[in-house]
Amino acid sequence: MAAPVIRVFSSESQVAENLCELVATKANAAIKDRGIFTIAVSGGSAAKFLCDGLPQVATDWSKWRVFFCDERHVPFSDPECTYSFYKTNLLPKVALSTDHIFPLNPELTVEQAADDYEQKLHRVFTDGGLPRFDVLVLGMGPDGHTCSLFPGHPLLQESKRIAAPISDSPKPPPQRVTLTFPVINNASCAIFASCGAGKADIVQQVLEGQSDDPLPAARVRPTDGEVIWILDQGAASKLKQASYKL
Ligand SMILES: O=C1O[C@H](COP(=O)(O)O)[C@@H](O)[C@H](O)[C@H]1O
User: Fold this and answer.
1) For position 80, what pLDDT does the model report?
2) I need a labelling partner for 30 at 20 to 30 A (CA). Which of 7, 131, 171, 188 fits?
3) Domain regions of the chain by residue span
4) What percent of the chain lies above the pLDDT cut of 90?
5) 148 CA to middle of ligand 1, Å?
6) Rounded CA gap, 10 and 115, in Å?
7) Can you give the pTM of this predicted structure?
8) Which residue has the higher pLDDT, 244 or 111?
9) Residue 241: per-residue pLDDT
10) Which protein residue has the closest C-alpha to ligand 1 atom 9?
């Protein structure tokens, strides 16, 4: 298990650019090696960074398979729907087929939608084992949550499911489906992108704090992979180790 790598940039636009260049490098390497690139993306600020930067990268979009680290269980027409954000802000600008991006089915109950999402994952990850994503692009909320895995929630202990329903998310909307830690920590590369001084305290706690009960974002430590944090100066401003500074 490798220690987190931390990269600090002077502006949000540089974070987005660096994130997207890194994702493209990973994508092109995976395509060269195996002919396919598997990625799960997040909502919130990470979605904005990806939609801003990915249209500029050079890659073979036909080889990408795009899942969601988590998704809100809302209709596609709801502004909280992460899939619809990508559909509006990324799909018109890149050659990614809608057959290669996998939304949650909001017409099912949240429990059925999670079951259905596990089947969608198994249709792409066909070896029957735990899916191993090439890249996860993760965000972190000000409480230290990542995906829809919240501090103190029983889903942090989930060990059987690869995608699980949650009906009591402390951040609205309450019903969501999320990847679980067995899949997250089986990824080849997990990348966090966080910006703004509002995230500085939680970034410091996650990256430098010690706890017997780590925050969800601090639990992202792929067993045979890397975790990379891409921060702007504001988000990195409370880190104590000088080597993390610009
Ligand atoms: O609710 C969510 O929040 C997190 C963090 O979002 P951010 O805007 O604070 O970066 C996000 O990663 C997750 O996908 C989303 O469902």
Assistant:
1) 98
2) 7
3) 5-239
4) 94
5) 8
6) 42
7) 0.97
8) 111
9) 78
10) 141
